[in-house]
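User: These chains co-purify. Model them together.
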Amino acid sequence: MSEPKIEGYKFKPGYSGMAADTASDQTMFKGVHWGKAMMWIFLLSDTFIFSCFLISYMKGRGSTPEEWPNPSEVFALNAFGVPVPLLLIAIMTFVLITSSGTMALAVKYGYERNRKMCGWLILATALGGLTFVGMQAFEWSKLIHEGVRPWENPFGAPQFGSFFFMITGFHGTHVSIGVIFLFIYAYKTFAGHYDEGKRGWFTSMKGDYVEIEILGLYWHFVDLVWVFIFAFFYLW
Amino acid sequence: MHVGFIFLAVIVGSVLFHIFTPWYWTDIASNWGSMDDTITLTFWVGGGVFVAVCLFMVYCIFKFSYKEGRKAEYKPEDKKLERILTWATTLGVAALLAPGLIVWNQYINVPKNAIDIDVMAWQWGWQYRLPGEDGKLGSTKVENINDNNPFGIILEDINGKDDVLIQSDVLHLKNNRPVKILLRSVDVLHNWYVPQFRAKMDAVPGTITYYWFEPNKVGEYEVLCAEYCGVGHYGMRGRVFVKSEQDYEKWYQEQETFSDLVAKQEEIEFSGTKLVKNNLND
Amino acid sequence: MSEDFNDNKTIQAQSSETISGEGVRGVAPDKDYVRPAEVADQDLYHGHSFITKWIFCQDAKVIGVQYFLLATFTGIIGLILSWLMRLQLGFPGAAGFMTAEHYYQFVTMHGMIMVVYFLTALFLGGFGNYLIPLMVGARDMVFPYVNMVSFWMFFVAVGVLLASFFVPGGPTGSGWTLYPPQAILEGTPGSGMGIILMCVSLILFVAGFTMGGLNYLITVLQARTRGMTLMRMPLTVWGIFTATVLAMLAFPALLVSALMMTLDKVLATSFFMPTILKAGEVLEYGGGTPILFQHLFWFFGHPEVYIVALPAFGIVSDLISVHSRKNIFGYRMMVWAIVIIGALSFFVWAHHMYVSGMHPWFGFFFATTTLIIAVPTAMKVYNWILTLWKGNIRLNTVMLWCLGFIVTFVNGGITGIFLGNVTVDVPLSDTYFVVAHFHMVMGIAPLMVIMGAVYHWFPLVAGRMLSEKLGKLHFWITFLGAYSIYFPMHYLGFIGVPRRYFEMYNSPYITSAVGVNEFISMAAFLVGAAQFILIYNIIVSLRMGKPAGKNPWQANSLEWLTPTVPPEHGNWGDKLPVIHRWPYDYSVPGAKDDFIPQTTPPSEVAGTEVEKT
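Assistant: Joint model of the three components:
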């Protein structure tokens, strides 16, 4: 994978200069790695997927005749005998946001070619993701135990279960895929594939630390989406 | 050269076909002549553009087809011409859009004296409900539908008691009186469409949709389902009779109301239980 | 694996012969200056075995041909289905096995195959893969491996789609729009496995397409050759690029609606399902809204129309320009029209739903946006015919297809103004007028472009010309036949014949039109059969066609300027091309030939006055 690196490209001033730079030959985004550009556009597409889900959710919630369950009761967790609303979800969100932080640090150490630090931080991120998925599984089993199903819901509108399981499930799948890749990348980092530019097993492209940044973009995106899901499901 | 002539023949043929076609819209039988007018307007403007563009193309074929050694003109763009064409097109489009929006505004605003008609659709048939003396339809619920209550009328609703129920696919309408068609479906999408009335709207399960028209020609018309609704879609027909006021009233008085139906059912049930009792006594 | 790379032969992008164009004081600035390379040369995986060279191949050109062949294969299935439908409509009962169930299944599969698996895959997967790297001067797509996976996902999607013909209940018969609730309820054929497989196939298609689409976008955005500015790209690339952007943003809605529909069917959720009474019993569904599906579907469905149309616009512009020996008139406006049409296409979706029972006020908004989109579209039409004006038009097969495109597209576009204008749509929607309109504008018109493109680029792909004689025969039967199918069909719509009717019984609307219905069916059989002329032509010409040589059409654009014809893997040999001009310098005053290829530096054609691009 070739990386366009242009040092000293002189950007032209003003709006017309910006237009000229954008339309100029070879690249539109000066100095942006192909893989990074790809991930940004993929994330834009993915944003549309999640937007469609959330807009459908709003429409579905707005038009169902039955009452929507109260999130602070449904999602409450008993801590020391007292039901605390949103306790689990607060911890989940905290874990996921923290993992975003470790991911950012991993990218930093990657570019500094600090192999060990980078590898450990990727592992930490993966563990954060794994914890998140685990806690989500716990929440799912709790709701299922209480009788919530995709097709029915003892607390009110059945659409609550449908949308909740579908959207958190879709997001959870994103996190899980991210975790799998994090583990692979941690292995590749520790094995030094990025230092020596070893070719990938599938794609046969030369390894480079930029791959960690690309995965980082994905990971931050998944976190950001979670914030929206959190707001729409737990706070509304 | 023959290329130009064939294309010319296609264009001329299209125009002639349009002029002499035996297949054109059915005679209108409602107030929506304005829809026909917008179609005619669009036909003139659009057809004009079609003919003009194609004739220009044919002219180019005749005039500029390949000659060894001739050089084409080199003219990347002509700002002025492009601006003129843009504005002319915009103007044409606006001229088509404006009447369209005006008529649409009429279409979605129902006149006050319109009679509400409940058109209930299912796979694959229609039935109708007219308001009684009070002029109001009772509200309904899909879950309430059963043999005793074919329209699913909510029993507590006073307005529903005198509703006139027509359990067949034949509807009668009063000439020159606007009707508001309230569409509902108990299963899938349907669309109550009479080509002569021009108007249509989907019936969507879970909600009530509407449109209105004013029949203005006495006669018999066929109802077609215009939204694909499964394997019996093509057979989902009905009939509408538009009648003069007297004929309509006569027909209207003969129809059964919801209370009539309930009373009849109770009678049947009553005699049924009596029969059982008598049998038991034996 | 690394021995598969020509590591020792890694090619350095050549820096320009001169160092600076700024001009040192006292020295005239160099006219031929092109900025030095920003992008290092791409290293490519060269396949060795048959499998890596021709099957799991990472060469965009081979992938393009694979897409083309598979899309054509599904297209032929769609064609056969359309024959069966027309047989039933023109001559009811002529095919004994044709029940209403079968008819609706064929309608559905015909529609879905033609729109998604034929046209979309052919334009973006086929032409996109083959032409984008060649036209922008790249060695290959930027992620060849992902590109390869994209094709095989498409392959699996087609497999799943065709598998639905063989499951109990058969393929879904819910119309290509798959509207719930009927799509998943009994009463619609294939409401069991059929609809599930359809949804799965669509999800696979979207996933596969996303992989391909990312490739097309990044190749255009970040991998052009030196000198290839955005405004020097051929309109073909602009069309495919914009269509891909639309696809990347529109397919998510399809994915989401397909997923929700699958859940409604498999898990009995009620996303789209209100309370429903079937056979006297209330089903377990409740509380959903069918209109939501329609919004999601058409948020995909309308851009989808332009996903098919924009590449056609782009390609036809290039074909017309090359074969009139004249630059495309108003290139800048053509580019902006493509971009504006693409952007507007996200704000018009509900014009498919004027009579769907959505809130009637939407009608005002969507009618306005829809008619606004007519303006840039009309500008494109004007520019095509103005390109012909004072040109030197070669009336060869390629040009004939382009002329056919103009006639059918203008015809279909005008009927689009009927249907887009909300009031006019009310009497005409859901009738044969709609069928005639969309077949004319997004069936026949893009097909004309595909055919023109096949005749135009076949010499590049195969190195041999197609037979002109057969080509002209093919064109005239197809054009006149297709026109006489769809032109009279509009009038069936005026009478009020609803679409998707298996049989008309004896309604007065249709009895008056029995003759025209039979005629349409006969024409459809003929046009379908004529397509096999092309297949015969291709097979014969592959072996016995006239050798094409380099640049048989005297075109300017980059795909004809490769060192070998057909181009090899890596496209450009040792040295990447450097671009000095736009691809439309035809018949430049003062130039010796009537074309100046994009790679010709200004110093070689001194004394010409060309547009600065």
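Chain B has a mean pLDDT of 90.
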